[in-house]
Amino acid sequence: RCNISYLEEWLKDKNLQSSNAKETLEPLSQAAWLLQVKKITDDDAKEICEHCTSLSTVQIVKILNSYTPIDDFEKRVTPSFVRKVQAMLNNREDVPQLMLDTKHLFQVTFPFTPSPHALELIQVPSSFKLGFLTRV
Prior knowledge:
Elements: H1 2-13, H2 19-36, H3 42-51, H4 57-66, H5 79-89
Helix pairs in contact: 3-5, 4-5
């Protein structure tokens, strides 16, 4: 979730924050949230169903089944909890797409700043051992 926040901040700083970029990051953000939320009670299952609107039922179940806690403070998600979430999700209309559109291109413009140094005057030090380079 922290890395997603960094990415969102970077988009905001570069004025690239469009609704399209936010929509694209939403499933990733929800998946990160799903990994961090408590997954024990009926209320937890209800909250998961209400919050994970950009993820399909298959994706949510896959994340819950694949989740492996890294320490002794957390327990594995029980199969009964996964079935409970799946039953609640069966009542909703699923997200039409399982994966992100990999063919979608985001336009990014990088400013060009020419070097104030003439490249033909630059000398490569011999300590770099790049004798195979030739000046054109």
